[in-house]
Amino acid sequence: MKKWRTLLIGVLCLIAGYFVGYFRGSAELIDWLYSADAKKAEAYYDALGAVQKDVQLLSEFRQIFPAAVERVRYFTSGREPGFDVVVHLHERYELTMQLPVSFDVSGKRVVGYGTPAFHLTEVERVEKTPSDTVAISYDPAGELRFGPAEWRKLFEHGGDFSSIGYKMTTDRPVSNFGLFTIAK
What we know:
single chain; 4 helices; disordered N terminus
């Protein structure tokens, strides 16, 4: 085992030496790696932008929750972004839908979608801190995670959460909820 580890370290040092020599220093290597990642990320964002208006699930979400904010985020263990859609409800809840996306090898074309995940959180308190930031506390009892089957029922019932067995408090907004904004 020790011989393999020594061999592996030696090979890695040779490879690193090659790259450092090839790029004449680590700054150029970092620039090269960053530019490759930046180009890939740009391709992903362009591909997502091209399909965003045509994705049925996003259209359904917008139809029921017109105030929803659509974002592109990295939330899977892979290196590809997906759609992350968030809406605040009744000045008390935050509903998030995450839709993983699959790309072709170039990263320039969307080839499919993963299973969407939905997460509803109930905000308990919103406070402004002495350092002028916003502190948000959640009520764990009000949390709900659900999938496509529950979404279908929720959509068919126009966003009525009782259709999936969740009783929402709609008449007691949380104080200072307006300070809680959705980051874009």
